[in-house]
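Bench notes, afternoon.
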Amino acid sequence: MMKRWVAWTAALLVAGAAAGCFRNTVSEMELVIPAMDSDAAAARVEAGLKTLGDAVKGIDWDVANHRAVVRFDNVRLGRRNVEVAVAHAGFAVNDWPADEEARARLPKEMQGHE
């Protein structure tokens, strides 16, 4: 009886550990980017996000509404990392202000929004 209990306990522990190895580590967040009102601006934002490497898993664009949804590896990046990458591209995002030096390097038509 004791052997059977030990075998079942071991099996449950192995199954639990295996399930933990396959947890979803991809998060999704919405970015509100007031100055992103063109495909050219979206390309600049995308370039900023690409500085985060392959931890960014995908981006869905809604340029008409100044929004993007970013999927990212939440083990490697935090939400603020994503926002800071956009800010360093020169754009205010959510409650994070644009990096002023990066904003000054943007084409004039992308600088006027906040």
